[in-house]
Design goal:
The protein is built from eight helices and seven strands. It has 206 residues and is α/β, with parallel strands linked by helices.
Length: 206
């Protein structure tokens, strides 16, 4: 699904496009008292990857009233930036109660810079008191592997757990999207999957 179709879904669910910043559109949910916000790129140049699309669609469909996103912001020492690759483009998102911010770029650093920049522009009007914290808070890269598990959902997790040395229960959490692997675990998973691919390439069925 392309970005313009995702934006259409958000609008159909009653969200309001309130302003544009640096190639992104800010959407506000229907609640007036405790609104949630979505930040989505508005340049229709790429397909939205599986995990990012599902997260944004889920947010649009199941919005609920929360405290303002800035309420819990000051308690955080870092923010997970969930990365997902679509062809040559990296997509990244940050989720906190009341806000889902999505951007894309040529690499993780580019995505982080764009997310921070558009978020700062938004915060300058919406919550200026957190701008200083937002300027310096670390974005910690983790990786969305939901598209991978969609392809490999028939495989036993025990194989990848054994090959990668990662606890099977943790791999199960990666598969459901309830948590995401850090850089080290993502590399270990990638190595194990590449080895699995090498072995599968040696299998003949005809």
């Amino acid at each position: 699904m392309r970005v313009n179709l995702l934006s259409s879904i958000v609008l159909e669910k009653g969200w309001e496009a309130i302003r544009d910043y640096e190639g992104h559109t800010i959407f506000r949910c229907p609640s007036v008292l405790k609104p949630s916000y979505l930040i989505i790129p508005n340049q229709d140049i790429d397909e939205v990857p599986f995990g990012t699309l599902n997260t944004a669609a889920r947010q649009a469909h199941r919005w609920k009233e929360t405290d303002h996103w800035s309420a819990s912001f000051g308690k955080r020492k870092s923010l997970p930036m969930i990365l997902e690759r679509q062809d040559a483009t990296f997509w990244g998102r940050i989720e906190i109660p009341g806000l889902l911010a999505i951007s894309q770029g040529c690499g993780p650093d580019c995505v982080a810079d764009r997310l921070r920049s558009v978020w700062l522009e938004f915060a300058a009007n919406d919550a200026p008191e957190v701008c200083a914290t937002l300027q310096k808070i670390p974005f910690v890269s983790v990786y969305d592997t939901s598209a991978l598990w969609e392809v490999f959902r028939q495989l036993k997790t025990s194989y990848l757990a054994h090959q990668s040395g990662i606890d099977p229960d943790l791999i199960g959490q990666f598969m459901t999207g309830s948590t995401h692997p850090c850089d080290e675990l993502a590399k270990r998973l990638e190595t194990s999957i590449h080895e699995l691919g090498r072995q599968l390439m040696q299998v003949s069925i005809r």
